[in-house]
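User: Hi! I'm working on a homework problem where we have to compare a predicted structure to a textbook description. Could you give me the structure for the chain below?
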Amino acid sequence: IADSKECQTDIEMYCPQTTARDNLSILTCLSNRQDDDLSTDCHHYIWQYKLNITMNPKFDFIARQLCKSALEVHKECVDPDPTSGKVITCLLDFKDQIKARSCVHFLDKISVIVFGDFRLICDFVENCYDEISSNQCGRNHTHDLQSVPHTQGQVVACLEEKLADGIEMSKICQHQIIRLSELSADDFNLDRNLYFKCKVDRENMCPDVQSGEGRVYKCLFNHKFDERMSSGCRNALTIRQKLVAKDYKASFQLQNACAEDIVTHQCLQSGNGSNDHSDLIGLSGILLCLEIFSGERTVSGHCEAQLQDFRAMLMSDYNLSPEITHNCAAEIHSKCSGQIEKAGATIHCLMNAVKDDKSTEGGSCQEALMTLIKETNTAVDYTMDVALATDCNETIHLACDDYMDGDPMILPCLIDNLYSLKMTTDCQQRLLELQYFISKDFNLDPKFHKACKSEASRLCHGAENNTENDEMPLSVVLSCLHRHIPLPGRQDLAENTLSPSCTTQVHRMLRQRALDYNLNPSLEAACRVALGEFCSIELPEKGGEFVCLQDHLENLTAKHPACGEQITQLTVMEGEDPDLENVLIAACEPMLQRFCNEYLYSERFKGEIMECLIENKDKMSNRKCADGVTHFQLIEMKDYHFSSKFVRSCKDDIQAHCPEMKSKADVVKCLSLEIRNSVLGMVSLHRLAHYMFLPQHENIEFVPGLHKACQGDCQNLCHNVEPGKAMVIECLRKNKDLISPLCRKELFKVEKEEIENPKTDFKLMRTCKSDIKSYCLWHLKEGNPHEIVDCLIHNKKQLQSQCRELIKSREGEMLSDIELDPDLKQSCDKDMNKYCAEEMNVTLQFHRDGKDPHGVIYACLKKVHTAGKEVMSKTCDNHIKFVIEEENQDYKLDPQLMLACVNQITALCDIDHDDIAECLKSNFYRDKITNTKCEVARLLLEGKSDIMADPVLHEACAADLDEHCSEIPEGKGRKVNCLTRVLTKHKTQLTHGCRDELAIRKNMWAHAAKVRLNLHGVQELSDLLISSENSSYLLSMITLVAMSILILGTLCGRCTKRTPNFPTQ
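Assistant: Happy to help. Predicted structure tokens:
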């Protein structure tokens, strides 16, 4: 060749360093030049030389000698005509099966010549002539061998592209093209079109990669979307990848690494892949085949590495999937036509388009995308999705740094952090797009499929051997499996519980679905209209759609029953597994670690996590977490079924006694009434105790009736009060004289519930927790929680300041309304009916009108107690005595006094420093209190009746009482009478302080008696005489005076009787 005049100039220009006598080296050098580089004469000379080589008996003889063993195996290559040129081209067909090194080396050398021109490939022109013409793939005049350049790589590339794009071809031509791609699989130089298009790119990006064994292909594939990659090379690479998608043998590395696995798993049987073409197995077929069996039989490490490369390749370029280019053509044109194809951008654009356009639901494009995800195994290995791996790289380092690169747990970790602060916007979008498709098909998540396949079949009536044929929607399968998770209280499941591995996968799948409304296909389909109707005015933040729908559950059930059923079902599952509450778990992660760590990693205690969060809610510094817990509690109140543990513990009692009730609040009230009526047994009572004693009154929204009735009052009186921690309810209590009657009625119900069962009093149980443990724990252990408040009242002086102030407030409520003091009703039941019937009717009317009774019954009983003329029962007398003492120690506990004397207290007393009772008494004695309704006179006379009700006098005379009146029983003024007698007869025997204070009190008592006499006349005078310490003496004197007047009147009447005038005789 070097001596030829046709190519001498070309060789000097392009191959100056090539050995002149080495024709193959010179031929290779010239073949590697572009067509336009060589002169026309040299083109013709090279073509003729190549043709002579393939038909030269010398080369044919060499081939027969070097490849003797191969020809013995492949007898179809033995041609008797040494000038036919078919021996070498036939041996090239079986090059990958030939073992003799000398033969392979010879064929490698000669293949550059053969693949340089399609006309030199055995039977290629004859088999593909029509396709070359019809697809306009010919260059110049392909039938005129003398007038065309020596290289025809672009003709082959054109046919390869048409075949990869699905253009119909004859089977014999199709076979030729595929055969050619297989023969060029190992050496980049043999794909002449790609070689020329990527020559510069190879030098720039893969300069150190040696040719052979598909290494250059792999390097160029990895740089396909590199900004430095030329468009021509990228297009040529795409054609090559399409051929691999048609025939896995077009990839030397895949064929070589997976040959044994393909045979072992019988992947060459027809029907294993959607891209099969006669005896050809497409890449997707190989991927699916090896993926199906990878869980049961091991795929070699080398093969798995190659599979990963090609999975990532398919996810990077939609052009490589004929199904997507065909079935998603409309979406690509309308939604993604301007999308720059870079590392899977178009595929994710299509995912997003299908996800957002509900008219494509179940369409061919959606199915094509789901098939692609399944082929690439992206649900297990996130790195197969190059776009996702790229956009989520930052988030992975921030949130999932504990996992090694490529760890299959990284994708679940990313999903768990979907709405965390560590999540970037792009990563979040990629995750939602991918998970939307994974969540639709049982088979798209291999881990879930493998762990739960048999149990889904056994427990949920799925197909016995192949769940792919199972028509049950994934949401139904998940719901069924969730019902068989071995949670606390599910002893009735016996043998039908899930295995630990399936339980883990069900939790993971449900947790992922709970993260976003769109990731739950059944929910999204059922609630599409409802979401627009109820959640469109104030659009919920991403991930908050489910929360919004829960808030409107009552309306959903009526107007959109299918959606209501879905929300109800998912909420029940949330109650059993708080991991499914995405907003809650995302916000509460630090709180869970701090307060509920012992429950997090134990399946046994999964159902206890929410109770732990509720228990520790008031300790949380994270407001979003506390709000999430509150929302969960609010939803639970709507339907008792949402509280799974409550249902499991109490379902028999609910069905027996409260079958018509639905809301948890109504059910609890109903059962609590049954307990009071002793209908439920002790076992049921203990089961109910936990749920009935939950802090229901922590938030006014937890009490639907109160919340509805008091909305206006809350806005007017408590608008600055933050919800939660019972603050709004406490605000209403403090302003109960200002709230509306309807609100007061509902507030009374709350107060009554709390006094009957203090464990429902959130404020009390939180504020007085340590004091209850210190002083009143015995009442809880004995099952008498209703005695807690009474216990705290009797230990009031020892309580912590905050608890003490709260107990004073609760005691004031009790003294204001007899219905809030069950001890009084029990102690004074007969006395009230006997002495205070009128006041009881008044109290009932107050309740009906939504007004506060302000202690009218207590006032009646105190009056009877103070007067002493009627005999009260001992229990009632002691109770009233205690109440009077309490009121004298704290004037705020006296509702009648507070109601009648509020203005006088404000005007005459220093509230912060004065003893208010003493202040009122002093000003009353000095006639500064002229309001006849003010209760100071009654207050003084109560102290006279019982010295314990007069703290000042009792303190001043404590020593004197011990010395002179220790044997005198308390009550009915006996102690005071004793001191008065000593003062009258032995004045000096009393201490100075007692003597002075007693003198002052006597004057006050006299003044009080005078005022009371003016107010109440003869009846009051009679009461005063009876209650006086000298009552016997006074009554004797009054009787003596009355008798004297009677006798004197009788006598005087006799004396002054006129003598009758008799007529004069």
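For your comparison, note the following. Confidence is low (pLDDT under 50) at residues 139-151, 270-279, 462-470, 679-694. Residues 684-893 form one domain. Good luck with the assignment!
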